[in-house]
UniProtKB/TrEMBL annotation:
One of its GO terms (biological process) is fatty acid metabolic process. Residues 144-171 are annotated as: Disordered. Keywords: Ligase. Belongs to the ATP-dependent AMP-binding enzyme family. This is Acyl-CoA synthetase. The keyword Ligase applies.
């Protein structure tokens, strides 16, 4: 194949700055290559073979990147673990993934040490000091920096968030091909958005800003692919709106991956703060994870220009893409199917529905099979022939553009009518005194369910009956009264994962205590 792939690029230009840690420490491609090679030699000496797996409980930065680069050239599976989990939850993933080595950063020492009980003490390694773990340096000490023999492609195995029961690893068969050839195939992802190689040997440098934790599938996929195209990865440790603008300006960031919550908070910055930074280097601000309210997307396009791209996808594979031009022509769409993906919208009986009709979204990605590790039943349950679903609801237009309605598990059934919370949230979030909002159904003796909104007030806004009334009044003429929340509660901070995913179950469950869910 061609000349893309981190390992080829690093050998051709070892001085290229391949990554920048949150504290500003720069790492050359040659340094990362040497560290990844030493790790492969060290783990092979420990007995790891092709098809084995490793887990990493590490923050954004070079440590996790080295684990990724080692696994992907040695034919291993790499599972980056969510550092917000508790010890037993982390331990479950370490055990379920059958990890042959577990790496923990000292920042997560307490819960990492609890999880370490699930794996042999000789196979636990720490960046820094973690009780019961060997120092990472012991593993790589004396190992050569040379490229290992018998290299073949590995893969990441991410665990789904487990909104219903235990999380499951999404595992794909390894192709057994050259790692750089596999990496070059991966670059198809960014190529769909029109992103070009970073040309580390000269010319215009490109940089990819990592705004969310690297344990999320999309963050790993987009960041990893950008690296394999020769872009510099610039890591954020935690997300802050003004800090994002500063880093875009400082590193001349050309592409990034974001979520609509980021947009809302960027737009909430005072005008003088927004105007202080030059974001003209940004060519591809790609977003996903949740429907983006139309006015918010419009404001981002007006501010940043036609660099805001959208897609819809799942860890399991397949998806859609919406260019700025597509979105302007079809406001609110998440795009049409990727060239190698297909979409299917079906009713509750599994039968295809006509264009414009809401139904469950099924997808497939040609040539890419997966299974939920150790759960054949779940794998089959979510399939319809060779299509799969993650439970989202939406509809297709006549010309194939997909619009999302909501997740099936979030749909409210009130008086027999289906109500989609996302539609209500998209209106409430536009209120200037609302920083964040969640809408869901709670028990209602007469109607089965009634609509509840929980609002995180914007800075300076006073929560209470007056604000609730103001929010409801703002819906007049924009949303049918049957869709208005019956009550609004207020919360100091909305429970969201750092990738923007709302943990709606945490809000909803207390209201359903001692009730049987009707949907």
């Amino acid at each position: 194949m061609g000349s893309l792939g981190f390992w080829r690029l690093a050998q051709a230009d070892p001085g290229w700055i391949a990554s920048v840690d949150p504290d500003g420490t720069e790492h050359t491609a040659g340094d990362l290559l040497a560290r990844a090679n030493r790790l492969v030699h060290g783990l092979r000496a420990l007995g790891l073979e092709k098809g084995d797996g490793i887990c990493g409980l590490v923050p954004n930065g070079s440590e996790g990147l080295v684990l990724y680069l080692a696994a992907l050239q040695a034919g291993w599976y790499y599972t980056p673990v969510n550092w917000h989990l508790t010890g037993p939850e982390i331990g479950y993933i370490v055990a379920d993934s059958e990890a042959k080595a577990f790496f923990v950063h000292e920042r997560y020492a307490a819960e990492g040490a609890r999880a370490g009980e699930e794996i042999d003490a000789r196979r636990r390694f720490a960046f820094g000091r973690v009780y019961g773990f060997r120092a990472y340096e012991e593993l790589v000490e004396g190992q050569p920096e040379t490229l290992p023999d018998d290299r073949s492609n590995g893969a990441t195995m991410h665990y789904t968030s487990g909104t219903t029961g235990r999380p499951k690893g999404v595992k794909r068969a390894l192709m057994g091909i050259d790692p750089d050839d596999s990496a070059e195939l991966m670059t198809f992802l960014l190529g769909m958005f029109g992103i070009t190689p970073g040309r580390p040997a000269g010319g215009v440098r490109q940089a990819h800003l990592i705004t969310s934790p690297n344990y999320h599938t999309a963050v790993t996929q987009f960041g990893g692919t950008a690296l394999h195209m020769g872009h510099t990865l610039v890591y954020m440790d935690s997300w802050d709106a003004e800090d994002t603008l500063r880093m875009i300006q400082e590193h001349r960031v050309s592409n990034t991956h974001m979520v609509p919550t980021h947009f809302k908070r960027l737009l909430a910055l005072p005008e003088d703060v927004r105007e202080r930074y030059d974001v003209s280097s940004m060519k591809h601000a790609i977003h996903a994870a949740a429907p983006c309210p139309v006015p918010i997307k419009r404001q981002m396009l007006d501010w940043w220009g036609d660099c805001v791209w959208e897609y819809y996808a799942a860890t399991e594979g397949g998806g859609t893409i919406a260019s700025p031009a597509d979105w302007r022509a079809h406001p609110g769409t998440v795009g049409n199917a990727w060239p190698i993906s297909e979409l299917l919208i079906v009713d509750d009986g599994g039968e295809p529905v006509p264009a414009g009709t809401h139904g469950t979204i099924y997808m497939k990605m040609m040539g890419l099979e997966f299974e939920y590790k150790g759960d054949r039943e779940k794998t089959e349950k979510n399939r319809l022939e060779d299509f799969f679903t993650v439970g989202d609801i939406g509809y297709l237009t006549e010309d194939g553009f997909l619009f999302l309605s909501d997740r099936r598990s979030d749909m409210i059934i009130s008086g027999g009518a289906n109500i989609y919370p996302a539609e209500i949230e998209n209106e409430i979030i536009l209120h200037p005194k609302v920083a964040d909002v969640a809408v869901f159904g709670i028990p209602d003796e007469e109607w089965g369910e009634q609509i509840k909104a929980v609002v995180e007030p914007a800075g300076g806004a006073e929560p209470g009956d007056a604000l609730a009334a103001e929010i409801l009044a703002s819906l007049e003429g924009r949303l049918a009264k049957m869709k208005w929340p019956k009550t609004i509660d207020f919360i100091e901070t909305m429970p969201r994962e750092p990738n923007g995913k709302l943990l709606k179950r945490k809000l909803r469950d207390p209201y359903w205590k001692d009730h049987a869910r009707v949907i």
